[in-house]
Amino acid sequence: MKILSFLRGEGSVKEKEIATMAKTSEPIIKYVPTTCPYCGVGCSLYLVVNGGKVVGVEPDKRSPINEGKLCPKGMTCWEPVHSPDRLTKPKIKKNGKFVDATWDEAIDLIAKKFKEISDKNGPKALGFQSSCRTVNEDCYALQKFARVGFLTNNVDNCARICHGPSVAGLSLSFGSGAATNPFEDVLNSDLIVMWGSNAFEAHPLAARRVIQAKKKGIPVIVLDPRYSATARLGDEWIRFNPSTHIALANSIMYWIIKEGLENKAFIAERTKGFDDLKKTVEKYADAEEIHGVPLEKVKDFARKYAKAKNAVIIYCLGITELTTGTDNVRSMGNLALLTGNVGRPGVGVNPLRGQNNVQGACDMGAYPNVYSGYQSCLVPENSAKMEKAWGLKEGSLPNWYGSTLTEQINEAGNPIKAMYFMGLNPVVSYPDSNHVMRQLEKLDFCVMQDIFWNESCEYADVVLPGTCFAEKDGTFTSGERRVNRVRKAVDGPGEAKYDWEIIAMIAKKMGLKGFDWKSAKDVWDDMRACTPNMFGVTYEKMEKPESVHWPCPAIDHPGTPILHVGKFSSADGKGTMFGLEYRPPAEVADAEYPFTLMTGRLIFHYHTRTQTDRAKELHYEVPESYIQINTLDAKKLGIKENEKIKVSSRRGQIETRARISDDVPPGVTYMTMHFHKGANTLTNTALDPLSKMPELKHCAVKIEKIAGAA
Amino acid sequence: MAKKGDMLYAWTNDSDLAKKAECGGAVTELLKYALESKTVDAVLAVTRGVDLYEAVPVIVTNPKDLDNCAGSLHCGTILLSKLVMEYAPDIAGKKIGMVVKGCDMMGVLELAKRNLVNLDNIVMIGVNCGGSVSPVAARKMIREKFGVDPDKVTKEEIDRGQFIIEYEGGHKGIKMDDLEDEGYGRRSNCRRCKVKIPRQADIACGNWGVIGDKAGKATFVEVCSDRGAALLTKAVDAKKLSTEPADPKGIELRAKTEKSMLKLGDKWRERDFSALAPRLWETIGAETARCMKCYACIDHCPVCVTRPDRFEQPALMVRPGFVPADPMFHLRRFAHISDSCINCGQCEECCPSEIPLALFSHAIRTEADKFFEPKLGKPVYTN
């Protein structure tokens, strides 16, 4: 929030300011249109610049995405930009202490160390991790560097721990791992189903579309174990037991088929796998014991969903962050295919992407098995094409599936010796923080490139100062596959550099070819040249806020807001239904750890809070972590509202404050993911076999009072 | 020698500017002259952004740069009142010229009542405003009601109760009443607005009432203050502007236009307020129960200025960290602006939860104005 400091005599009037400005013709204020750096909705906003500093955010009402409206995070996104805590110089750890270094020293050291380790231990001894928070151009640069410089596919991004299962699951169901329809398209729907999505807090401006729809009279049904802020928005809220999605979806589909409400023509024409599905769901006629939803409610939902002319499913991490993540996503696909709700306005299956560029980081090929545009590394023709584009020897690019985000952490020490983290804070954001810290200790060499000193930097050998969204040009790709421009408003602090530029410096130091970019647009055009589904997305076409939704294969192609119209993106053009069995989470509550812990997001913070906690209002709203506990449980344990309590799992223990309500059912607790020594000290690293998603949303904990705590 | 109360036709003597500007370009010329003559040190105006649907504020110190601000943008739903003090505090103490619609002007006057701006330092050139259309809504309206690709539109205007567009291959006008009955058209706060000619500015300009051979070639100017009169006189003396007395029939026509706009404003007030009246508490309760606490309604409100120590206060009724916001989050704001809400509509337009905030606060003020003596003194404007 802007402070009118000068009015209270706190500021000074600079007498010569105006004369100077007139002379230099630098405008006194400049409105720079750009894209919000937080969630995957990709809201447009103006950064207001005065005297080389960002002084505020103003609404961009011309934007079709958010029409000038912003959430608490968007409103305050400018505040951390000029924080005195920004990294301004490279730092090298010498004798256990970090000292300032020159860029030359830092780049020399990194090039030397990575080269040494690669020469000695081969391509599997390195790990590269890209952020979903930074621009596409940075993500493309990092994966190109890993592949060209070290012939490794050990490159991943943090989509792995949010929507990795969406990429995997929707690819299997529909042939493309992205959201099928734009956010605004819910206004064309006749029924909106929100399943495992707390969009009101995690994607507020996507939730705004649901609010608009509800005002139009479109019914909204929210399925969530928790009475979340989003559940409060719905016309109907269906509580089910945590992590029982498949059982519930199967029950629903059993009743759709039983009552003959499936879309027979759609199934016959556009899908395969119906018999497999039908056979499997027969076992789930009444699965209340598993999912906890009364049979009549299941039947009622089945009828409503199947009978709606156009029904859309919006889902989020409640679906994905489980060891059954990919199957949960495929269950959403099953529902849509069974009822013919794909491939036109008002329908579809839409994962809400959590990070501003989680779609883009994957699109750019910062992924262990695909190049940019989801061209598989395991298909020799693709590798041959990339070898040609990147000037590599024929047959040199690896044809193996690289290690994923948390697999790389597990492999730290053996076989991975060196890691490069760009814009990540694994100690806070990955599951089982204690494990992450132990593993990072085992590395021979570790680079952290960031805008702030975060909790993970301690484990680095070199820390490099990157630039934030306000200080660079580039693009973010939102959850609706819209590529939005990010525009530079001010210079980075001190010696901070563009992130792609840092990577190019190391690459050039190593004598690599193909890193002579002069601007973010050069990097983007490098990517376009080898990425058929994004070839037509040029910077020129992104000038208007409508921009372009990929796929956009040609310059004169208008882009593709809705996927799978008439034909699925899969090789045979069909959508696939799968018979999927319910499996319980890897760790469930038991006598020793009697509570289920679920995790999620808060509207007031973003991930590990390196930025949001530096905004006054956001810090004020939620300065520390808490755990939601049911009223009855709290009473049994003798815990009072806001009391400091101890929560432990098999992996660690923390102290946090109790927030008591019936928003969670008895036996279930909930924590947000944002705090150090918080939820991720407790979470489980068990993986979904198909997508390697760790089970961040479900583990078993016990709760104890702290003697003498208030 | 112009004086307060004069009604004139005015036009620029700069033929290049005349081509670029609308209706004689008097507004742009007056501001240019104000800068050139050092009457003001800077001008706060609005320029076109990526296309004609986007308006972006600029602070201009070089008179030539004002050429880019010529013309009108009916999709520019921005409010300028708070902007300088927020983003360019370095200008405090300097003289500034502003182009103001009714809401911009009322916002400045409200800030002045609170001693937050010094009116001695602000020259306000008012422009008539019959209301504005939010950019995305305008594009939708043009696509759906005019059947025209909004990217092909080269000019838009609101004239004689019609929304008119020119586009590659033709022009088309539709009655605003018809558009609004179907849910298109101006922002709902604009529909209720009754400050169509900003007479508390120094000069009020517009195209209403320009008839005869001057139609489309001159600006109708009403001189509203001595300072406005002095500026106009000097600009004429410097041969920047030409003026002639307005045609009496034009004056009559302008008054008629204004009267019909005010009547329309009353019609919308009656419609909106009477719909709200029977279930007032329930409606306010239900709508504000979606609040996600973005603080936009406070940040963008020209009469909300927050305390620097607001986050150090004990929280009794608005608990930090809870969404939807506790009811007092909004009740305290409604109370705070109860006799000052200018119905600029920013709170509502910027609300991510689609809460009709301006409707609530405008209704509160309108009813309160009819009943109480205002605590900050009677405003010089009537809305």
How do the helices and strands line up, and which of them pair or pack?
The complex is a heterodimer of chains A (710) and B (383).
Chain A: H1 17-24, E1 30-35, E2 44-50, E3 53-59, H2 72-75, E4 91-94, E5 97-100, H3 103-121, E6 126-130, H4 136-150, E7 155-157, H5 164-174, E8 191-195, H6 199-202, H7 204-215, E9 220-223, H8 229-233, E10 236-238, H9 245-258, H10 264-270, E11 271-272, H11 274-281, H12 288-291, H13 295-307, E12 311-315, H14 317-320, H15 325-338, E13 348-351, H16 358-363, E14 370-371, E15 375-376, H17 380-390, H18 405-410, E16 418-422, H19 426-429, H20 433-441, E17 445-450, E18 462-465, E19 474-477, E20 482-486, H21 499-509, H22 520-529, E21 548-549, E22 575-576, E23 595-600, H23 616-621, E24 626-629, H24 631-637, E25 644-649, E26 652-660, E27 668-672, H25 679-682, E28 699-705
Parallel strand pairs in A: 6-7, 6-16, 8-9, 8-12, 9-10, 11-22, 12-13, 16-17, 17-18, 23-27, 24-26
Antiparallel strand pairs in A: 1-2, 2-3, 4-5, 4-18, 14-15, 19-20, 20-21, 23-28, 24-27, 25-26, 25-28
Helix pairs in contact in A: 3-21, 4-21, 4-22, 5-15, 9-13, 9-15
Chain B: E1 7-12, H1 15-20, H2 26-36, E2 42-48, E3 55-60, H3 83-87, E4 96-100, H4 102-113, E5 122-127, H5 135-144, E6 153-159, E7 162-167, E8 170-175, H6 176-181, H7 188-192, E9 203-206, E10 219-223, H8 226-237, E11 241-245, H9 248-276, H10 280-288, H11 296-299, H12 328-336, H13 346-349, H14 357-369
Parallel strand pairs in B: 2-4, 4-5, 5-9
Antiparallel strand pairs in B: 1-10, 1-11, 2-3, 6-7, 7-8, 9-10
